[in-house]
Specification:
- The chain is of the alpha+beta class.
- Helix content is 51%, strand content 19%.
- It has four helices and three strands, in the order ααβααββ.
- It has a three-stranded antiparallel beta sheet with strand order 1-2-3.
- The longest helix is centred in the first third of the chain and has 28 residues.
């Protein structure tokens, strides 16, 4: 059926996934044992440090997705200050007159390459508190 050196790719992928699951399970058990052996003060300090690292990663992720926090802005939806993130974007805004004219002159061929909408620089805001998003 199969030669000695060839395995179907899905079987190889399944073996790799099983290996990763076993490895992560062992790692989690080792960490649980290490935390259980700590004194209450050491455990609390360890958990606080782990929470700080998790919060830092979450903040970095939100900065990449929604931009940095703008402390001056107040969310118009929930009236919360200090939770609004802003970033610059290029947003489609209406129909470009020049592109529409070119489409008429070329019989619509230029529209296939460029489309009719124009893009303008805009600012997107996102509130971390109420999860609303708006542009201005």
């Amino acid at each position: 059926m199969y030669s000695a050196g060839s395995l179907p790719i899905w079987i190889a992928a399944l073996i790799v996934l099983i290996f990763i699951a076993i490895h992560s399970h062992k790692k989690a058990n080792n960490e649980k044992k290490r935390v259980a052996a700590m004194s209450p003060e050491e455990r609390q300090q360890y958990l606080d440090e782990k929470k700080k690292q998790l919060d830092k990663k979450q903040n970095q992720l939100e900065n990449m997705q929604h931009g940095p926090v703008n402390p001056i802005l107040i969310c118009p939806h929930c009236q919360t200050a200090g939770s609004v993130r802003t970033r610059s974007i290029k947003a489609k805004k209406g129909i470009s007159g020049g592109k529409a004219t070119a489409a008429i002159l070329t019989g619509g061929i230029s529209m296939l390459a460029t489309g009719l909408s124009r893009k303008e620089n805009s600012t997107e805001a996102y509130c971390s508190h109420c999860k609303s998003r708006w542009n201005f």
